[in-house]
Amino acid sequence: MAKGITAVFPGSFDPLTNGHVDIVTRSLKIFDRVVVAVLSNPQKATLFTVDERVQLIQEELCSRFEGVSVQSFSGLLVDFVQKAQAKIIIRGLRAISDYDYETQMALMNRNLSEDVETCFLITSEENSYISSSIVKQVATFGGNVSKFVPDRVQKALKTKVATK
Ligand code: PNS
């Protein structure tokens, strides 16, 4: 365990999936505190508002795991990381197809702030093909996503789809 170290786990989380929960669980084996940083970007269309995403993550993770907090952020991730007094960004890697984009982001973030390191964690095999986008797509057409997201997210998806 890297004692006293805070890591930031950023993402859109639209919505939180079991893959994200898996990465948070793994992160807590290494770091004391994990700040889940939810991107607020009005230019990007999302199914859930930023407040809804933050609330869902808070309800799901903060009661379950000590050391997890959730905040929204806008602008540059490295600025948020600095404000959170952290130096580590956590990103989950599912398959080799994630590698290009993730390397690009990690190198750009390093360029923007030399103090910040990106730490990649490999998701569990059963979560390796899950993404928020695919979950949204399936849920939008009434498919069963119970294996891929926490129960409360599944319920929130049902409500959202029904009221859209
Ligand atoms: O879950 P996502 O959509 O893959 O997360 C992407 C995220 C939020 C990590 C990325 O878009 C981001 O960091 N956005 C903030 C803007 C920024 O700092 N850009 C420069 C790094 S590429």
Provide a descriptive summary of the structure in words.
The structure is a single chain. The chain is an alpha/beta fold and 164 residues long. The chain has one domain: 3-Layer(aba) Sandwich (Rossmann fold). It is 40% helix and 23% strand. The chain is globular and about 45 Å long. The model has no long low-confidence stretch (mean pLDDT 95). Bound molecules: 4'-phosphopantetheine.
Task: Write a concise keyword list for the protein shown above.
single chain; 164 residues; alpha/beta; Rossmann fold; 6 helices; 23% strand; binds 4'-phosphopantetheine
What is the helix fraction of residues, given as a range? 40-55%
Largest sheet entry: 5 strands, parallel
The total tally of domains equals: 1
What structural category characterises the helix and strand content? alpha/beta
Strand order of the largest sheet: 3-2-1-4-5
Question: SSE layout and pairings?
Answer:
Layout: E1 2-11, H1 18-27, E2 31-39, H2 50-62, E3 68-73, H3 77-83, E4 88-93, H4 99-112, E5 117-122, H5 132-140, H6 151-163
Parallel strand pairs: 1-2, 1-4, 2-3, 4-5
Bound molecules: 4'-phosphopantetheine.
Give a nutshell description of this structure:
This protein is of the alpha/beta class and 164 residues long.
